[in-house]
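Subject: for your reference before the review

Hello V.,

The reviewers asked for a structural picture of the protein, and I figured it would be easier to keep everything in one thread rather than splitting it across files. Below is the amino acid sequence we used in the manuscript, unchanged from the supplementary table.
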Amino acid sequence: ATFAGLSYSAALSGLSLTFTSSGLTPVVQTGFYVTPGPATTLAVLAPAAAAFGGTLFGTQPAIALLDAGGNSVKDDGSTVVTLSVIATSVPGGSLSGSTTATAVSGVATFASLEYDKACTLHLSFSSGSLQ
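And here is what came back from the structure prediction:
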């Protein structure tokens, strides 16, 4: 028998599949693995926080790469995520530090970011078609 269009959204290991049909002995396939697909979206794991104007963000942003099922793409160690300021409550400020971060085990962690004015920032993270 051929089964088309089957899908499973969670990345798991050690699964088993049982095939049954009326009047036949069930067959079990063990050791079945579902691995994450390619990254399709970004998710904020740790938002930038605890900052004073002109000082390093107390919490630097960390961005996860997720597949279509919401699974972390932990084998990604090359995707570059870019940070940009899309709005601020006080115009004329400047963001300093590295505005790009390369994923390590599916997470892009920014470092050394600071904004020179005390204000509310709205940040955007992207990588190619990922947002």
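For the response letter, the relevant points are probably these. The first strand starts at residue 12 and ends at 19. The two ends are 40 Å apart (CA to CA).

Happy to draft the paragraph if you're swamped.

O.
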